[in-house]
Specification:
The protein has helices at residues 2-25, 30-67. By secondary structure, it is mostly helical. It starts with a helix and ends in a 10-residue tail after the last helix.
């Protein structure tokens, strides 16, 4: 029973030390972190939209090229 109690006390102390270290060593506050995540998500969304628009334009160009009348092949001799 004593060993189990010592284990839980050690785990509690370890959790408190870990939480304290995480708070003291965190690079930014929660609000700053949320703003950074939101900015990165917005940037990524814009990049994806831009890449999709570029790819769509490329595919539309290829489709128009395929739909345009092709000259007949030269006769075989």
């Amino acid at each position: 029973m004593q060993r189990l109690l010592n284990f839980f006390i050690g785990a509690l102390v370890g959790a408190l030390v870990g939480a304290t270290a995480a708070i003291l060593l965190a690079p930014s506050s929660g609000e700053e972190l949320r703003i950074q995540i939101q900015d990165r998500a917005t940037t990524m969304r814009e990049e994806v939209k831009s890449a999709a628009a570029d790819r769509r334009a490329e595919l539309e160009h290829q489709l128009a090229k395929m739909r345009s009348p092709q000259p007949p092949p030269p006769p075989l001799e």
